[in-house]
Structure prediction request, 208 residues.
Amino acid sequence: MGGDCYDFLEVKKGHWLFYVGDATGHGIPASLVVAQTNAAIFGAALDTTDVKTLVDKTNRILQAKTKPNMFMTLVACLYKEDSNMISYVQAGHDTILHYSAKTQDIKELDTGAVALGMMADISKLTKLKEVKMEKDDVLVLYTDGSLESWNDKKEIYGMDRFMKSIQRASKQKNSAQKILDLIEQDIHDFRNGTSATDDMTLLVVKKN
Prediction:
């Protein structure tokens, strides 16, 4: 049982919600937080397409329903087909990585706020940000299990290798699935047979 969560939902015609989260701990306690988070987000998405409101509502539910020592980092995004804009909210999670096809550069988007479940009201801390997706741009959401992979030489995979892997796969104008496969293969090759020590979740979004 794992402590990572993710989903990709059409919450309204032409409005796509996607998110990645990481609960504290491992095993059954973490998996229960994941289940609660998925249910809370799905429920909130029935009432609003505002991603900040959705994150704030999910936080209130988790804070009320989980133990004080359990929390969930989360990044949630909403893509609008009519404007090619992605609005997103960070809640203590790893930064979103954005590859620009125009410049062929990759960068970390702004992060912030606190993890869900730590306090009853985080509405003054969560900030709504936006990024415009141009043709062949790529976004990657992930959990820290990807960055913290180790190899047989006790080296860590790390952010630099991760970003270069995304950039290399994206430059070839591959599909989102192919980019995901290439990143996973790069991490697998780096580990060189070493077992994973944490959950690893990757979500790749590409603008066609």
In short: The domain at 4-206 is CATH 3.60.40.10 (Phosphatase 2c; domain 1). Residues 14 and 82 are 7 Å apart (CA to CA). The two ends are 34 Å apart (CA to CA). The mean pLDDT is 93.
